[in-house]
Design a protein that fits this description.
It is built from 16 helices and 17 strands. It is globular. Helix 13 runs parallel beside helix 16 and helix 15 crosses helix 16. Helices cover 36% and strands 14% of the residues. By secondary structure, the chain is of the alpha/beta class. Bound molecules: 4'-deoxy-4'-aminopyridoxal-5'-phosphate.
Length: 518
């Protein structure tokens, strides 16, 4: 298997050299913006990477569950990706072509259309955008505004769509005029206090009633944008039934439905696209991250009758990244041919199962959730006085299933209010302890000490996020679980006690392995 190709000089300068690594980190802190993010919590200087393993300049190796924020479906430097990139270079194909037609782009588009939900692919147009996910979000918002002549937007609490103005406005972090913020079905912290699919149905009802209320204060919406599984918001899978309700609600009102699959796409959630789980066909799909095989690429795909832009209406220089298209086509084909979405579903379910077992008796692990290889553990302060009202998600019985469904609890009476024919099973979740970001940060550091890279997310940065590559082996899966569970207990020991008692069997910390688990 190929390894990262680094110039010999660069390697010689940093390889196995802790001093050099420290120097680079020091210079980064002096020269780069205070806005830097991952670099603060992960003081690593990566010099080599292969598959799931990243090697730092100090010689330490890490299992990478961050995967370039989900951009590396096949892990680092997968041979099919490297071969595809080399083929473009060896052919001396032009690398910068604006939006001209090329064989590389033609092949990428073939592969993309072959994987898209067939109901969309049959009548779709694609517009390549600037290279980031946020660019594709901007394009989608602009497109539906042009097509509908309306200006408002329906978006969800906890959403993350990017950092440029329009995408930021659609995200949950800041109030924005013209954006109507709707409740996302966040089971663990259900805004209606019931959780499960029952809570999700209440959120659908809220949406429906608000849209039809002439005094609801909704700016006439050009579209509804949603993530089928909220990623940065804390790994929150929407129930399939809720997604179908959003489809019905928007279709009935001629509001284009935009699925932001920037993070959930390319097999990540156990289906090629997360909307596939529900059978929902969106009007617009926003794609980036893994579609470029780890290189910058973004596209918006939409129903052809929305293709109202006149020539030049959405232009830009960098929308023809040939290396990214080649890497992306190779990635999409490899995921499809090797059934990696199914593999993500299987491995993800096993990980969720193991982590839920581990969470039993550890009340500070409030919730374990996810879909496919998009997994989150929400850490909480169980004794911090939250109105948890006896619902202890650490007990296991109330844990939701991998698809956000409730674990079989019965409806509590609100179901009757919603009328007959509802698709939800009902649930009784009534509250959750406050999030514990300090504990989550400590877990991230303990993971790093054990050679494991994890991300933090969620409303309060209290969710440990795992986004391993879809190629993760069984051995690597075990290593991730061992290191993570060890780190969770270690963090509790180091951050004080409160009510975070460990079960009596908790093993003491074993120093990190010298080798790696490729
Ligand atoms: N949408 C979603 C769902 C995302 O998760 C992200 C990035 N995390 C974006 C959009 C923005 O992508 P980018 O960072 O490439 O601009």
């Amino acid at each position: 298997m190929a390894v990262t190709q680094l110039p010999p000089m660069a390697l010689a300068a940093v390889s196995d050299d802790d001093g050099a690594a420290q120097g680079i980190l020091r210079r980064q802190a002096l020269r780069e913006s205070a806005a830097r993010t991952y670099a603060r919590a992960l003081p690593i200087v990566p010099v080599r990477a292969r598959g799931m393993t990243v090697e730092g300049a100090d010689g330490r190796r890490y299992l990478d569950c961050l995967s370039g924020a989900g951009a590396l479906a096949l892990g680092h430097n997968h041979p099919v990706v490297l071969d595809a990139i080399r083929a473009v270079l060896d052919a001396e194909a032009p690398l910068q072509v604006l939006d001209l037609a090329t064989p590389v782009k033609d092949a990428f588009t073939d592969e993309l259309f072959a994987t898209l939900p067939s109901g969309l692919a049959a009548r779709a147009r694609v517009r390549f955008c600037g290279p980031a996910g946020t660019d594709a979000v901007e394009a989608a918002l602009k497109l539906v505004r042009t097509a509908t002549g309306r200006d408002g937007l329906l978006a969800f609490s906890g959403a993350y769509h990017g950092m440029t103005a329009g995408a930021l406005a659609a995200s949950g972090g800041a109030p924005s005029s013209g954006v109507t913020r709707l409740p996302y079905p966040y089971d663990y912290r259900c805004p209606f206090g019931v959780g499960g699919e029952h809570g999700a149905e209440l959120s659908a009802r809220w949406t429906e009633k608000l849209l039809d209320d002439p005094k609801g204060g909704v700016t006439d919406p050009a579209g509804m944008i949603l993530e089928p599984v909220q990623g940065e918001g804390g790994v929150i899978p929407a129930p399939d039934g809720w997604l179908r309700r959003m489809r019905d609600i928007t279709a009935a009102r001629s509001i284009p439905l935009i699925a932001d699959e920037v993070q959930t796409g390319v097999g990540r959630t156990g289906a090629l696209w997360a909307v596939d789980h529900s059978g929902v066909v969106p009007d617009v799909m926003v794609l980036s991250k893994a579609i470029g095989g780890g290189l910058p690429l973004a596209a918006v795909v939409y129903r052809e009758d929305l293709d109202v832009w006149p020539p030049g209406a959405h232009a830009g220089t960098f929308r023809g990244n040939q290396l990214a298209m080649a890497a992306g086509a190779a990635t999409l084909a490899y995921v499809r041919e090797n059934n990696l979405a199914e593999r993500a579903a299987t491995v993800g379910a096993r990980m969720l199962d193991r982590l839920r077992q581990f969470a039993t008796g550890r009340a500070w692990i409030g919730d374990v959730r996810g879909r496919g290889l998009m997994i989150g553990l929400e850490l909480v302060a169980p004794d911090a006085g939250s109105g948890a009202s006896g619902v202890n998600p650490g007990e296991g019985a109330r844990r939701v299933g991998p698809h956000g469904e409730s674990a079989g609890a019965q409806g509590d009476g609100l179901g009757a209010e919603l009328g007959g024919g509802a698709w939800y099973a009902g649930a009784t979740r009534t509250g959750a302890p406050p999030a514990d970001p300090a504990l989550a940060a400590a877990v991230q550091q303990e993971c790093l000490r054990r050679g494991l890279i994890v991300e933090l997310g969620g409303r309060h940065s209290a969710v440990i996020r795992l986004l391993p590559p879809l190629t993760i082996t069984d051995e690597q899966t075990e290593a991730v679980l061992d290191r993570l569970t060890d780190a969770l207990d270690a963090a509790v020991r180091t951050t004080g006690t409160r009510s975070r008692e460990l079960p009596p069997t908790a093993a003491p910390f074993v120093p990190p392995l010298a080798g790696d688990h490729r």
